[in-house]
Structures are given as structure tokens and as C-alpha cells.
Amino acid sequence: MNQGRHLQFFVATLVMVIGSSLSFSPQALAAPKLGSACTQAGATTKVSGKTLKCDKKNKKLVWVATTSSVTESSKPVSKVDPNKVDPNKVDPNKVDPNKQSAGGTLASGNFILANPVDLEHVVRLSKFRSCVGHDYSPGVLAKTGAGDTTVESKRSMKHYVIIDIPASPSRVVKGYAPFDGKVSYNTSDSSMGIGVLITSPNGWIFEFMHVQALVAEGTNVRAGDAVVAAPADNAAAAAAAKNSGNTPSGGNTTNVFDIALYSAFTKPSIFESPFGHMATNIAALWSAKGFTFETTVITKGARDAAPCVTDGSWNGNFVGTAPESDYVNAIGYKP
After folding, report:
1. Residue 87 located in a structural domain
2. How far is residue 236's CA from residue 228's CA, in Å, rounded to a whole number?
3. β-sheet with 50-57: strand ranges across
4. Could you tell me the CA-to-CA distances from 241 to 151, 192, 196 in Å, in that order?
5. pLDDT digits (tens, 9 = 90+) for 220-232
6. Integer Cα distance of 113 and 128 in angstroms
7. Is residue 191 in a domain?
8. Is residue 8 part of a domain?
9. pLDDT averaged over the chain?
10. Among 65, 86, 103, where does a domain finish?
11. Quick check: pTM over 0.70?
12. CA-wise closest residue to 303 among 136, 91, 71, 56
């Protein structure tokens, strides 16, 4: 009798469990698939190797794919290191030194990063486009002729640096590479020192003339490296020779050296004053002694209106004595 009752209780319980199971939605029992309903927002599951996420779409919770698209906000940000140059991009200011083209692009701005001259003994400069010395311009170097007005001519587009050191002792005042470059010599006129050139990779040449070289030709130098010294070793002999020949101001020319800035690969050459390309801290050193771009440069228009007179020689020596206005003196110096 008791066994019958137990059997009846077991059967009743089984019916209740089965009935309870059948009360669940068929969707809850079905395997998750893309677009089907889900119950917990944010839940994830994997189906056939793909990850599905429970997300609300049109006010309903459904399974959506998590790898079907990437939002803009989730995309990785590409960071560019400003200190690294893309090797696939060409620097427009860089000129291949093996290709001496007629239209090389030159760097502009303040690219003279080191003081080219020890200023302690500098007392006086000739101005850019002065009538001091001889014609040093694109016109005379290109030998285009006096009638060619397409380039500047009949002017000295460099600076004579006058120092307060006599012809002897030599090598007192130092000159430094104004930028990174390669050293070469110009020995065409070695009667008093030589020309020492520093050529930058992007096509500028800074030249010291009538100096003594301190580094070997072909040396690669960095901005600030000592490269020359003045007066030259043979300056005293040059002074004696000039004075014996009654050369006007012969004694004064031996405590002078020249600096010039011009293009290496453009034809005709481009001449600029170094004062137009000095970094701010370098310009400040010269300005403290009274030498600025404004005080050391004669404008093209002013010189065109009053061209220098040359004697017709191969390098166009100027006739007469340059006016004092073609010079600028250091503060407190009187020639």
C-alpha cells in the first residue's frame, strides 16, 4: 500500500517538473544565433568560431557580431615620431651634391647655427654690396658682361672683416664652421693665406678668404668646429711686399680676411649676407658689437642706383676709395 502511494507521488512530481520545463520559451532553449533574442545585455557567446554579443537593437536584446565592423573610436591611432624622417619622403631643401643642376633648391631661414668668427678682435666690417676691394658678384663670376642686368654686378657681395691684430703674430683670430659640411680649399690666390670653404649638404657654401686652414681638405665638420685662423702665416711677407710697392693702404690689407655665403649648385650663383641667415643667439652676439643685418647690408635698390666703378681688370678692382658709408664699425671703435 505504501509502495503504491510512493509511486503515485513520484509520478506527480515528474509531471510537475516536465510541466515546469515546458513553460520556458522555445527561444530560450534554442542555440544562440545572429539576430536571435537574448536576455542579458553585454553577455557574449561563441557560435561556430564567431563571438556574439547581447546588445540592444530596436529596443530589443539580440545577439550581434562583435567582429563585423570597427568603430572610428576603437581604431588604433597612428602616431608619427616628429624626430624621425620618413625615408620615402624627399626633403625639398636637400640637393644632391653629385647633381650640380641649374635650379637647385636652397634652404632659407636661420641656418647659420654657430658663430663663424671669434668676435674679440673684430673692429670693422665692409658692408654687403659695398665698393670695397673688387667686384664680387654673380655678374663678374659668370662673366656675363657689363650690359647684363639680369644678375647683380659691380658690387662686393661679401664682408671684409677687419681685426685689430697686426700681420704678425699669425693665427690669432679663429673661424668656425657655421653649419655642418665638408671642407675644401681655394688656392688660386695664395699670396696671403688661402680660401677655405665649408659646403653644406643642401647647397650653401660659407667661404673664409685669406686665412690659414686648421683642418685638412675633405674633412667633414660640424657646426662650431674651428676650421681657420687669421692673420695667415704669410701675412707679414705680404705686408712688406705691398708697402714696398707703395700699394695704397697696403699695410691695412694684411689684417683683413673675408667671409662670403653663396650657393654651390645654382647657376648663376646666389649671394647672400650671412647676417640674413644667423640663428637668433648668433645674431645677438654680433648685434652686441653693433653689427646687424640693417647696419651691414646695402640694399639692391640703393646699389643699383649708385653702381661701383671698376677698372676693367679680370676681377673688377674698384676705382678710388670706398666711402666710409660702405663700412660699419664696432661700437666704440674709430678707424
Report:
1. no
2. 18
3. 44-47, 50-57, 60-65
4. 36, 11, 23
5. 999 999 999 999 9
6. 20
7. yes
8. yes
9. 78
10. 65
11. no
12. 136
